[in-house]
Amino acid sequence: MPPKRVAKDPETVIKASGTVAKAKTVAKAPKTVAKAKSVNVTFSLPAEVQADTVALCGEFNEWSPENVRLERNGDGSWQAVVALEPGRTYRYRYFLDGQRWENAWHADGYVPNPYGGDDSVIVVERPTRAGQAVTASASKKPGPR
């Protein structure tokens, strides 16, 4: 994994590829697509994540560990689907067993939080066609971030 780059200000997002973008910059949808009020975003973690419970916390649920719980799939992976407003970015993290935080390893970017760590960032773009899904996932090899 390449060395982590950290944004100097909360408006800057360092993408997983290492490129830098402004958090509020989102490409506009083609004019032929109707504006979606929300899109379903799938958040997932691989089966290798050692946890009994996984909560999804972020700006979209006021960081509550009670609102969105990931379910374990038959293959052992974790997943939750959340309806989010397109055309914006959201900070989020996973809260494992009510004790430890985990970032997504394949987030669209990472920004510093006020607690000395980083938050994962997802850019929810407007779908280019009806029914298009958006996915946020962690890598196959979880670890501290």
In words, what does this structure look like?
- The protein is mainly β and 145 residues long.
- The chain has one domain: Immunoglobulin-like, CATH 2.60.40.
- The chain has no helices and eleven strands.
- It has strands spanning 12-14, 20-22, 39-45, 54-58, 71-72, 78-84, 88-96, 100-102, 109-112, 118-124, 134-137.
- A hairpin with a 5-residue loop joins strand 5 (71-72) and strand 6 (78-84).
- It is globular, with a radius of gyration of 15 Å.
Feature tags:
145 residues; mainly beta; five-stranded antiparallel beta sheet; four-stranded mixed beta sheet; 37% strand
Structural class: mainly beta
Number of domains: 1
The DSSP helix count reads 0
Second CATH tier, the architecture: Sandwich
What summary fits the major beta sheet?
A: 5 strands, antiparallel
CATH class: Mainly Beta
Q: Name the overall outline.
A: globular
**Poorly predicted runs of 5 or more residues:** 1-6, 8-12, 14-19, 22-34, 137-145
Radius of gyration: 15 Å
CATH H-level name... which superfamily?
Immunoglobulins
SSE layout and pairing:
Layout: E1 12-14, E2 20-22, E3 39-45, E4 54-58, E5 71-72, E6 78-84, E7 88-96, E8 100-102, E9 109-112, E10 118-124, E11 134-137
Parallel strand pairs: 3-11
Antiparallel strand pairs: 1-2, 3-6, 4-7, 5-6, 7-8, 7-10, 9-10
